[in-house]
Amino acid sequence: MQIRDDDISYFSKPEELENAWGKWYGKVNIIFSVTPFMVETKEYRIENREFDYHQLGEVEFDIAENVALIKYLKNLLSKHYIQVGLHGYNHKYTLENDTLIAEYDIKDEELLYQKSLKAKEYLEKLLDTKVDTFVPTDNSVSGEAIKALSRAKFKK
User: What string of pLDDT tens digits covers the 156 residues of the chain?
Assistant: First the structure.
């Protein structure tokens, strides 16, 4: 069995993760999908959209600055309780004509490659673990994103 938790970022609290998953550590395979440079969330309403709040901010929050979270994740990794995947670079949406475009649904392969590689290498160094799983923000990817992720050596 495998469980995935997305949106682990600067804003995540170790105690919330512990409450949600602590009883399962060591019993099931858990992947924490991490966003290393999450942008701030702002309210933006779109009819028939599940959520009214989206990552539309300009300021990036580096996960490394949440020292308690990094310590918690490293401890879990050392016990082999979790794996870490990449959940985008900053999770930022683009807004075009009242349509939200997810971070990895854009068509710029080179930009996505650079962001993916930087985020992957950053997390690998910060957490001292291999990162080869990618979980797209909003479960949305373009063909260019698939090519970029392949070039950045994520699993097929």
Answer: 899 999 999 999 999 999 999 999 999 999 999 999 999 877 666 676 666 656 777 889 999 999 999 999 999 999 999 999 999 999 988 877 877 888 999 899 999 999 999 999 999 999 999 999 999 988 899 999 999 999 999 986
pTM listed for this prediction: 0.90
Q: Which amino acid is at 29?
A: N
The 10 Å CB-count burial string (b at 16+, else e) for 65-76 is: ebeebeebbeeb
Q: How many other C-beta atoms can be found within 10 angstroms of the C-beta atom of residue 132?
A: 17
Nearest partner of 91 among 42, 129, 23, judged by Cα = 42
Point out which residues pair with 61 in neighbouring strands.
38
| Contact of 120 with 154, CB cutoff 8 Å | yes
